[in-house]
Amino acid sequence: MIKFFRKIRRKLLRENRLSKYLLYAIGEIILVVIGILIALQLNNWNENRKENIRENQLIDVLITDLKAKKAEFKSDLAIGKSIIRNSDISINYWNRNNKIDTLNLKFLLKYLAEDEWFFNENSPVYATIAGSELWKELPDSLNRQIDNMYRMQFGSIKSAFVKQSEYALNGKLNFLAPNHLLNLNEGTSSIQKIVSNRDEDFIVLLELFKSGVVRLTSKFEKTIPSIDRLIENLEFYKNDK
């Protein structure tokens, strides 16, 4: 193509057709400019495509992180409901019979001694997105929703876990350890006798522990649907771009 234009240019010069040569030169310049503009447009399109891919990858990673948190909360919710259910059985039995029930005794003592309740609300995924260009591109409503989830709702769950761990540590130090109830290898009847000697203290401890679990499960029940809504909004934003 370049050789073709050169031949035309030389022919016009040889024939001394200056006006036509000038028109040709202008046309050639216009073609070069158009080519440059097209190249720039293609480059911009390619860069935008790459940026969209990077943004979508970040959104996908965030969605994966949220789904992992949801699965964790659903598992904890099931455990919490089990603790509440078994606590109610033992508390109601004691209220009716003034006696410690053996049915769920070991199960409850096991959780009353569990002082390692933990939840890490910090997320490297959230930190990465909050400091990226994607954060500036997201709608304000979606930014607030993400921020509220990671900073407020997850932070609130973290606080509830810390409080629950404090309840368990208090029970371990003031009731379980002094009564040699940290080792549950003995028979249920033997353990019942030990607990029965301080039955009121056990029930108070159990009610306190249960109240913390109730608070935790209520947070899980509120947060899980919020995660679903956030995931839905993120997927809608990604697919609507």
Q: What is the strand and helix layout of this fold?
A:
Layout: H1 2-14, H2 18-97, H3 105-112, H4 124-130, H5 133-137, H6 140-176, H7 188-196, H8 199-240
Helix pairs in contact: 1-2, 2-3, 2-8, 6-8
Mean pLDDT across all residues, rounded? Answer: 83
Tally of domains: 1
Rg, rounded, reads: 35 Å
Report the structural category.
Answer: mainly alpha
Number of helices: 8
Overall helicity: over 70%
Describe the protein.
This protein is an all-alpha fold and 241 residues long. It has one domain. 83% of the residues lie in helices and 0% in strands. It contains eight helices and no strands. It has helices at residues 2-14, 18-97, 105-112, 124-130, 133-137, 140-176, 188-196, 199-240. α1 (2-14) packs antiparallel against α2 (18-97), α2 packs across α3 and α2 packs antiparallel against α8 (199-240). The longest helix is centred in the first third of the chain and has 80 residues, at 18-97. The radius of gyration is 35 Å and the shape is rod-shaped. The model is unreliable at 1-5 (pLDDT under 50). Keywords: Membrane, Transmembrane, Transmembrane helix. The chain crosses the membrane at residues 21-42.
Brief write-up:
The chain is 83% helix and 0% strand.
Task: Output the keywords.
single chain, 241 residues, mainly alpha, 8 helices, 83% helix, rod-shaped, disordered N terminus
